[in-house]
Amino acid sequence: MTNTNEQSGNTVNLTYSCRLPLSTTTVNHVADLLREHLKAIGSRWRSRTPGQIVVLVLAVLRHDQRAADLAGGNQVSATTIRRWTDEIVALLAAQAPRLDRALKKITRKGEQVVLLDGTLIRTRRRSGKANRKNCSGKHRSHGLLFLALTDERGNLIWISAARRGAASEIKTARHDKLCEHLRTAGLGALSDLGFVGVNDDPDDPVIITGVKRIRKKKLTPGQKQANQIIAAARAPVEHGFATLKNWRILTRLRLNPTRATNLLRALLVLTNLETAR
User: Fold this and answer.
1) Helix 78-93 crosses helix 257-275 at what angle (to 10 degrees)?
2) What are residue 45's DSSP bridge partners?
3) What are phi and psi of 142, to 5 degrees?
4) Which of the listed residues 76, 122, 135, 183 has the most CB atoms within 10 Å of its CB?
5) CA-CA distance, 195 to 149, in Å (whole number)?
6) Within 13 A of 100's CA, how many CA atoms are on the CB side?
């Protein structure tokens, strides 16, 4: 802990150190990306070096540190921290794979199946007309819906654009034309019961789900066993989401859907850098 010797009345401002649990490879990759960007735009001077800027931005993303708190301990303004964060998030989001390219990469590896699931990233409650669109009846919470694909080991390969929390997973999958992309790549997908009915061709499904129990008809032993097999096979997708949500800025977002999409895609790139070590 360091005393900055700045006094306001009877209050003494103190700064403290905080561990950032990220690899040197990740920090260096983002710093190199920023250096190339600064060179491309002809930026001659910044108050901090690219490496220092990256560490501050990663602290915002990993620990959800407030910009005002970081600014006070590093002699820069909160607006500067926010501007740096937006800049690096945009650079990382541009590196996120597109759906068709991500599926082609899986095909080249010789794999035949990907795992599909959706998650709700909770947000602050909106006021006015935007309140109802962000409210998810399934989760009984306000948030933004994202779909993600992982390989069979649970490594994230693609994440969708943000949809309002009131949207369904089936509607989001159809909007992104997942069935068409999977069929073109020659791949199948395993998903949970939330995607029952999503296939564009029921006679030739590419997204495999379990069997949903209806009120007047119980599942047969064979259907129960099939559901268990599918659930066990798609379990790694939950590990992929858990790894992504280690970035604490996702605890409760304070962003609109467009900026949230860029943030999630940037975190996808960072997550893959960490898990690929």
Assistant:
1) 70
2) none
3) -90, 140
4) 76
5) 13
6) 4
pLDDT in tens, 19-55: 889 999 999 999 999 999 999 999 888 889 999 999 9
**Nearest-10 Cα torsion for 6, 11, 15, 16:** 160
pTM of the complete model: 0.86
Q: How far is CA 245 from CA 122, 125, 170, 208, 272, in A?
A: 11, 20, 23, 26, 13
Separation between Cα atoms, residue 81 and residue 78, nearest integer Å: 5
Residue 237's nearest CA partner among 245, 226, 225, 248 is 245
Residue position matching structure tokens 């998903």:
191
The pairing of strands 207-208 and 113-122 is unpaired
Strands 135-136 and 207-208: unpaired
Q: Tokens in use for 73?
A: 């301990």
CA distance 75 to 200: 56
d(CA 20, CA 29): 16
Which DSSP string corresponds to 163-188?
EETTS-HHHHHHHTTHHHHHHHHT-E
Q: How confident is the model at residue 2 (pLDDT cuts 50, 70, 90)?
A: low
Q: In whole angstroms, what is the distance from residue 165 CA to residue 276 CA?
A: 31
Query: Cα 5 from chain centroid?
Result: 40
